[in-house]
Give the backbone structure.
Amino acid sequence: MLQFSDNPYRYFPPKPNRLIAWLGEQWNGRCHLPGTRHLISKVEVENAGPLLDVHSQHGARVLLLPNHSTHSDPQIMVETCRQIGLWSFFMAAYDVFERDAKVAWVMQRMGAFSVDRDGSDRQSLKQAVSSVIDGRYALTIFPEGNVYFMNDRVTPFLDGPAYIAMKAQQELKESGRIFAVPVSIKVSHVTDARPSLREILTEMAAALEVEIDPAGDIVTNVHRVGIAMVRRNLTMRGFLPPNPNYDDLPALLRASTELIIGKLEHKIGIEPKAGAELMDRIRSARREIHKVRTSPAREIDHAVAATWADEAILAFRILSYAGNYLSEKPSLDRVGETIEKMREDLYSRDFSPYTERIARVRLGEPIDVSEQLAAAAKPREAMASLTDQFEQGVQGGLDELNATNIHPGAELF
């Protein structure tokens, strides 16, 4: 998953250039996606008709809302838009723009603009709303907000996309309609990657000094390596819960996260809201840490805030694991996703793909935002309802894609 950045935030606006965007789309589809950085041999787009129908209507604006399970999703969406003849702006984490100035320059010309995930980014929200209202381009936002490596199951959506859609619709009033389109991306193995995955897991086990049977049950081996990772990270940082139950991994992960975030809130000096979910508490802590680390007036606190940031990302990583995702259905795809995620978290960096994959993209039924606003008694109720519909739409599309997946990735490991 993306690391959090605490560099002072600088907004990167879109600077659309149709020629550069066209060249970028061609290079992305023909060279970048099939290349070693992604190994996506093909992108298949399904059910584009309903989206194209509403896009052709006078006054219609489009918001695309895909799941975010791999680092290749933005490139997959660029190719999807190219195939259906739709130019979309993209809202992207500002960390991505800071990695490479040349890549950032191209991204801006292709219509991408930055967002600060840890703060209240009014510039980005204003740009998002104005892009939707403008109507010349679609707008693509990843509502999960991060890469979770769970391609069969969506994680809870943030409410930012619903807010943007509602805000744009309220400003348009009767002059146009906003349509939000759930987009389901399914990336699946097209080769038998079992030997490669066993080799990667064996290397991780050796690094963690845990014994596994290289030819044994894959779920058992992944579980052992995962427990070793959690135990190592928590022990080194003094966050191992008392009397840990290593047989109940989900409970251990939640107890560990609760311990980390509780101590972190105490050190930062914030009180969690009553009934707040653990992920919301982590995000609140991250916002406070971000304020400290980017404030020149708090320079004397920057060193200790770096430690807080490390603890926050640890809590985020631990909680982001779904304890039963692999055991529920140990397919080749799920085993690969889980091992890939574990390797990133163990070494704190991303890796190039280990095998060829295919991407199937299913465009869901467009959701008329104006209808949802009219049906809700209060805007907040509409925002909650829309977020639920976005999430259910993407999950429904994933279920359909999985039901018709004939590639090796769908087979049990």
